[in-house]
């Protein structure tokens, strides 16, 4: 007697950390219709369940977690064909080469920037307290909110510029400032292995000049002039603080173990960049959702195609193709 054929095996779900296929990557954020949106929602649900499982496993201790991560890395390496280059992560040929370009001189610049920035920030905060007046309360709140919005936009502008244009081979700025952006796309979790200095050094450097100018005004202007300019100074201070913390917030958006509860609370309330929100940017070819302080401006800027508009102008004027250098490093095999 003939037996009926066995039922087909169920489709294997993607393991955590494994990128979806080309079709899923092509879906893009809110840009490819309802089907793509449903696919992302399903993936996010699976990832959320997986994150909860991982969070439960944290109670079993760091040694076991480290062993599990090492085992996962070894398993991923075994899945690659012999002699093939890792598609992403710390073992990617481009990621290894870019990491080796981090120099002692760069480290010194980061240390100096961090010390100067936080010294000026503390000085300015202390002196601002003496400028506050109850009648300025509404203007100060508006100024702080505007500072946060501006910081989010500036983070997107800098992020878009460094992701889209330039090359690691450029003198001075290439290895010092563009290199981390190239490394991040082919090894997104490298930022979670950076210490506080490496994570925040460049942002601190950008904030030093406005903070120094603010400190000068706080010690040179008359009390009456300072009272009049207090809302503006609060705007500048909020902008400088959130710009300084942007890459730390960005690091938290890639961190899934050991975050303080107050950080996850701020992420869940979308006061700072949430982890799920930032995943949209890491869909190849990394052409959207560039704002990484709060992420509030990502959706409206995407709806008006702001970044595409700028790219079309620059490409038309220069002939340069957006993200050409980023793609070159992503395809590096040795």
Automatic annotation (TrEMBL):
- Biological processes annotated in GO: ether lipid biosynthetic process; fatty acid metabolic process
Identify the taxonomic lineage of the organism of origin: Eukaryota, Metazoa, Chordata, Craniata, Vertebrata
Its name, as the record gives it, is Lipid desaturase domain-containing protein
- Spell out the Low complexity composition-biased ranges: 69-78
Q: Which gene encodes it?
A: LOC123028510
Q: Domain (Lipid desaturase): give its ranges.
A: 149-325
**UniProt key word Transmembrane helix:** yes
Coiled coil ranges (UniProt) are none
- Per UniProt, what is the membrane topology? Multi-pass membrane protein
Into which family does the record put it?
Belongs to the fatty acid desaturase CarF family.
User: Example GO molecular function term?
Assistant: plasmanylethanolamine desaturase activity
Q: Where in the cell is it found?
A: Membrane
Q: Does the keyword RNA-binding apply?
A: no
> Main site of residence?
membrane
The alphabetized UniProt keywords are:
Membrane, Transmembrane, Transmembrane helix
One GO cellular component term, please give it. Answer: endoplasmic reticulum membrane
Return the Pfam families for the record.
Lipid_desat
């Amino acid at each position: 007697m003939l037996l009926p054929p066995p039922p087909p095996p169920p489709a294997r779900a993607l393991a955590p950390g494994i990128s979806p296929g080309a079709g899923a990557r092509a879906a893009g954020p809110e840009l490819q219709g309802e089907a793509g949106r449903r696919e992302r929602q399903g993936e996010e649900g699976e990832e959320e369940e997986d994150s909860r499982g991982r969070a439960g496993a944290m109670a079993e201790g760091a040694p076991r977690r480290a062993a599990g991560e090492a085992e996962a890395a070894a398993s991923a390496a075994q899945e690659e064909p012999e002699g093939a280059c890792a598609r992403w992560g710390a073992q990617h040929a481009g990621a290894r080469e870019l990491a080796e370009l981090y120099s002692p001189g760069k480290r010194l610049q980061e240390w100096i920037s961090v010390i100067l920035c936080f010294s000026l920030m503390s000085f300015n905060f202390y002196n601002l307290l003496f400028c506050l007046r109850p009648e300025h309360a509404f203007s100060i709140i508006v100024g702080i909110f505007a500072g946060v919005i501006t910081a989010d936009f500036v983070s997107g502008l800098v992020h878009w510029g460094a992701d889209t244009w330039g090359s690691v081979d450029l003198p001075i700025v290439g290895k010092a400032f563009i290199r981390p952006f190239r490394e991040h796309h082919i090894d997104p979790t490298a930022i979670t292995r950076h210490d506080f200095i490496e994570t925040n050094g460049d942002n601190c450097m950008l904030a030093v000049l406005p903070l120094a100018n603010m400190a000068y005004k706080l010690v040179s202007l008359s009390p009456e002039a300072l009272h009049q300019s207090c809302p503006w100074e609060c705007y500048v201070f909020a902008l400088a603080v959130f710009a300084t913390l942007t890459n730390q917030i960005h690091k938290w958006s890639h961190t899934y173990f050991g975050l303080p509860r107050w950080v996850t609370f701020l992420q869940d309330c979308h006061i700072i960049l949430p982890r799920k929100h930032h995943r949209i940017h890491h869909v190849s070819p990394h052409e959207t959702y560039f704002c990484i302080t709060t992420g509030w401006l990502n959706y409206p800027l995407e709806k008006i195609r702001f970044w595409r508009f700028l790219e079309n102008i620059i490409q038309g004027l220069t002939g340069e193709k957006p993200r050409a250098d980023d793609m070159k490093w992503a395809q590096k095999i040795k």
